[in-house]
Structures are given as C-alpha cells and as structure tokens.
Amino acid sequence: MSSANTASLNTATHTVAPRRARKGTSERRGGYWWYILPGAIGFLAVVAVPFGMNLWYSLTSFRGVGDPVFIGFENYQRLLGDPLFWASFRHSVVFIVAMAILPTAIGVVVAAVLFNYISPKFGSKVASFLRATYYLPQILPIAVAGVLWKWMYQPQYGIINTTLRDLGLGGLAQNWLGDSDLAIYAVMNVLVWLQIGYTVVVFMAGLSRVDPALYEAAELDGATWFQQFRTITLNQLRPEIAVVLITTSVAALKVFAPIFVLTRGGPGTSTIVPAYFSFSNFFTTTKVGYGAAVASVLALMISVVAVALLRYQTRNSEGFEDGRG
Amino acid sequence: MRKHPLRLAAAVAAALALVMTGCSSGGDSGDPNTLKVWWWETDDSALSTAWKQAVSIFEQEHPGVTVEQELKTYEQMQQSGQLILDSNDTPDVLEYLKGNATAGVVAKAGLLTDLTEVATTRGWKLDNSAQDVGLYDDNGLMGSGKRYGITNYGEYVGVWYNQDLFAQHDVQVPTTFAEFENALKTFADKGVTPLALGSADYPGPHLLYSLALAHMDERSLAAYQRFEGDVDWSAWEKAATTMRQWVDGKYISTDSTGIPAQDAGNAFIAGQYPMFVSGTWWAGQIAEQPTFKTGQFLFPGNELHAGSGGNLWVVPAKAKNKDLAYDFLQITQRPEVQNLLADKGGVPVAAEPGSASSAMGLLVGDRFTELLSGADGGLALYPDFPVAGLNDVLVANTTDLVGGDASPQQVVEAIKAAYDAGKPTA
C-alpha cells in the first residue's frame, strides 16, 4: 500500500468515523424527541401560550370582554407607583420567612429528633406515626384548613381565646385575624403549620441515606447530640435543604389560597400578597390588563428567585461532589 | 426522520383541536325545544322555590319543551360570568349580578340582549325604581338607558332587633337618630354591646353608608351613584366620625374587624346582640329562630336606605332560544310566582297586597313596597355600586376605621381616591 493510499485511507477513516458518530447521535436525538413531545405540547398549551397572552394583556387596557386597547407600558408604570403593589411584595418577604425559612429550620430539627432520638429509643413505628401527624396538614385541603383556623382564631368563641379565658389568661386573648398588626403573624403561624410536614418528610428521607457509621464514629468520639446534628446532619442534608428552600420560597412568592381563605388580604390591606392583588384586579375590579401586569412581574420575580437558588444549589452540589463541600 | 416529531405534533394538535371543538359544541345547545336556565340560589331559599314554580308553569304551557336547569354559584358567576356570556355555549336565560362592574360591563360589551322592545311589546310592568338595576347606558352605568335585565325581587337594609332584649333593658324602638344613639348608649352602659357587626365583610360598609345617607339628599345621592355633580364627601366624613365614636362608646366591638357577615348574623340570631344592621336577605333565617321575638325598623332618621331591586334575569346575546327565554321571564313576573316568593319570606317586586302569609313576609314585603312608592323612591342602592372593586376598598377602610388603624379623614380620603380612580372617564 502506498503512502498516498495510506494517507487517503486515513483521511477516509477520519472523515467517515465522525460522520457515523454524528449520524448515530442524531438518530438517538430524533428518538428522544418522541419522549419530549407530549410534555412540550403540554407546556406550550398550559404555560407558554397563556403566559404570552398574559404578557400581551399586560400591555393593554382590558376589562375581560370586548377588545383590549394597547397602552404600552402604562400598566407597569402605574404598578411602580402603586403602594399596594409594594406592600404586597413586602408581605411576600414575610411569607418567605413563614413558608421557607422557619419550616426548614424547624423541619430539620424535628427530622433529626425523630430519626436520631425517637426512632432508636421508641422504635421506627412511633417515629413514622409522628412523621405522619406532622404531614397531616399537607394532605388537608387548604380550604378546610383555612376554615378550621378561622374557627380557632374567631375572637369571641374561637378555641384559642376561649381556652385562654378558661385558663384565666383572658388578657392574652386577641382579635387574631381582625387586628391589622397581628393578622400577618396569625397567617404566618398557619403557613408554618402547613409547611412543616413537607420539610420533615423530605429531611427524614434525606437522613435515611446518611451512612450510620458517621453517627457511630461520632458517638465513639464522644460527640454530643448537638455536635452530631451540626457536623453530620446539617452537612449531609445540604442538598435536601437547598431543594426545600427553592420549592418553599417559590410557593411563598405565589401564595394565594391561604390568604384567600383566611383574610382576603385584610384587615385593611395588612396581609395582601401579589397573587391576591392580581386576582382582585382580574375578577373584582375587572382591570384585567393591570392584573396581568402584576402577574407578569410576579412570574418574573419567581423566575429570578428560582434561577438564583437553583444556581446556588448547583454550584454547591458540584463543590460537594468534588469533595469541596 | 426529523420531520416526524413535527408531524406528530401536528397530529396531536389536530386531535386536541377536534376534541376541544367536540367538547365546546355542546351537543343539543341549539335544540329549539330546550330552554337552558341557570341560577345560583340554593334549593331551600325563597327565590329558588319561586323560580322552580316558574319552571313548572313554563313546562305546563310549553309541552314538548325540555327545561335544563343548572345550579351555579354566586362566585362562579361573579368571577367567570363574562367568559360564559362570551362563549358559544351560553344558557338561554340566567341569573346575573346587577351593577356597573358586572351587568354593566357585559351590557356595554354587547353580550346581553337588549330587552327594551320585548318588555314594551309584551307589556311587562317594570316602571318602579326596583327595576332600575336592569337599565344600563352606553357606558355600562346602571340606572338609565336600555333594559338588559329584569329583577323579580327586592332588598333593603334595615335594623333587625331582638324584642326580648329591648324589653329586658327597657329600651323603646327608636324613631329618630338621637333616640337611636340613646338606645345604643343604654345597652352599652349595661355592659351589652348593642350592635352585631361583621366589619370584615359587607355589614361594615353598609353601616357606614347608612350613617352617610343621614347627611345625603337625592341630589348628593345622584352625584355619588350616577356621577351627576360633585360628591358630598363631608357626609362620608361625618359618617366615619360617628362610626369611630360608636366604637369608642362600645356600641360596636373592635373584635368585629375579625368577624365576617355570617358570624355577625349568627351571633344576632343566637341572641347575643340586641341589634343587627343588615338586609332583608336575613329575613328567612331570622324568622326561623325560635328563641326570641324579632322586629325590624328602618335606620332611624334616614330618608334614604340602602337597597335596590335584586339580581337580574338576563338573556345572553348568544342565547339560542330567546323567545322561550322571554316566555320564562314573563312567567317569573306573574302573581302566582311573586305571591309564592312573598309567602316564603322573600321580597317580591310585584306581589298582590297581603299575599304573604307569614308575619315576616308581610313586614318586609310591605316595607319594601313603601320604599318603592316613596316620592323619591327611598332606595339608595348600595355603596359599592358606582365603581368596580369599590366593595374591597370599603371593607378594607371600614375595618381600618373600626380597628383604629386610620382616622375618619384618612378613611374617606382612601374611599374617595378609589372612587375617583374608577370613575368612567368619558
């Protein structure tokens, strides 16, 4: 074989092989499309198209019927000067505390107590039962939970105030949902109660993958429960904590049902949130264009928070995998 | 190969479109022998009973026509009524919400049938002020213009009172505002909170409006409700000041900011409060309570009282069987339906005098007739009628007023701002 032929063969091999590889990849990609398609169609129909329409409506003056009138960014300009809009976002920050930060903090402690203390001492069945009781609010329809809490908070015959009065602590009885200074804390309490079950279940699942040898070694080294919690539990649960913080923060930003059922944004506007503000513009004042602008800003803010938290989590888990975590 | 996903997408999209078209075609919606009727009143209510009677008469007089009745909810119609009326699958006749923000909006958008000519041709008697709730002008403002709906009942706000508690505390039924305040004070001095109030809901604004109406006349009412001239906001400020004084005097509990309308009514019905300022829609429940004797008087000293015709029967512009719908509307106005409404404790607009068999029916029915026949009508509509979304603003501000979170001036400023922002521009 001449060197020229060898060169030519080499070239042919070089040119053919990658083409085959590309063809193979392309065939596989074509095959994968079939899997993506139903989700893509669903996404288009349920998310992308309505979101596009929402963006369009946010640039119009529209009362829900008739023809929308294009007004450019007027709704957004008005939004920036609307104190109610800013108040609703301030409340969102408060609800991030109630739905993300507090339930995560409490959840991780409860999960650790159930996993490392209750389960070994009283058996896994007791721990499972207690986990289920924490999870109960999650399976209760929010309307039912809201009505229950409204009964409990009722200022005159609600169980909280009547119990306080029966115990001779009538001075502590409050107008829980009717006092504009107090209502937001009363709502926060309900939200924490609702969320703890979710965080406990996720963290207990996370703890079940932690190597027991770590705890055994720590115990042999004489580490206290708190030291084990700080150095092992918290460290090992970092991926779960990140996921829980992302999902609950997003849920807090778009919270609607508990506010609708408990306070409808009141008393006054002391518990109004962006989703309820948008809803009331859509359906009560029939300012659909303005409501759409609120919804668009809300969607944008949720996306920003979700992406930021996801990036943070990805960076952290990469570090974790590299042994830097 | 690459085209396959697109082909599949097209096929799926086409299938979806076919399914959706199939779903929305509504099968027999265009059947000339079917009348589709929607309302939201619950089965045990006086209104529902009367309308079932209308359906029964309709079926007797239209053999071969099937009536398809669907029960909706108030919230459903409030929140998605516009979309229903804009769809191609509307009922032939339905109960719809009166007011600028609801019937006014859809009337202006051309989604309701103009009933003006039908009403004239068929000789419907709709010349009383209760029927003003069915009239909307070209801007969708209620009270004048073309007729887009009719109402079969009325309602007004008065003061319900517990006769036993009045007797026990030696309080006379007040006839003037001063006597009313004296009665409130007498109860408060004895440690009894005199007024049941749900400030977290419509009763708060209704009480504030009743106090404002004490300082309003026909001209200032027209300015507020129909934008005819400048609104007299000083009347509202006086009302807010009085309401604040009533809270300070313990005539109203500050707890009321956490109490919705139903709870306030329930507490009155349970005998916990001597008085409850609210509407005739409570008549049935109040009449049924067996523990004390109940009475009702109009807000003392006022010439004008919150109240109006009830919600509307409308015929969608896209209704398939309009003639059948008109026949049904005509039947709802007949004495046999109206008298039944009165008999069940409702407030009919066209019942025969003395047709109510119950004391409560006679009380509210006759009083409503008096309010209708007054020289100025006596009915002042409701405080949230002029502007869409005003109810939320009124509730929020009344709550702030009762809770002491805003001064009367701040409250009225906030209401005025929302009112001005929502006013029709042209």
UniProtKB/TrEMBL annotation, chain A:
Q: Which SUPFAM superfamilies match?
A: MetI-like
Q: Name one GO biological process term.
A: transmembrane transport
Q: Which organism is it from?
A: Saccharothrix texasensis
- What GO terms fall under cellular component here? plasma membrane
Compartment(s): Cell membrane
Tell me what this protein is called: Raffinose/stachyose/melibiose transport system permease protein
One short Pfam family name for this protein? BPD_transp_1
Keyword terms of this UniProt record:
Cell membrane, Membrane, Transmembrane, Transmembrane helix, Transport
Q: Which residues form the ABC transmembrane type-1 domain?
A: 89-311
Q: Which PROSITE patterns did the record assign?
A: ABC_TM1
UniProtKB/TrEMBL annotation, chain B:
Q: Where is the signal peptide?
A: 1-25
Top-rank taxon: Bacteria
Q: Which UniProt keywords apply?
A: Signal
Alphabetized PROSITE patterns for the sequence: PROKAR_LIPOPROTEIN
Q: Which InterPro entries match?
A: Bact_solute-bd_prot1, SBP
Protein name as it appears in the record: Carbohydrate ABC transporter substrate-binding protein (CUT1 family)
* Species whose genome carries this gene: Saccharothrix texasensis
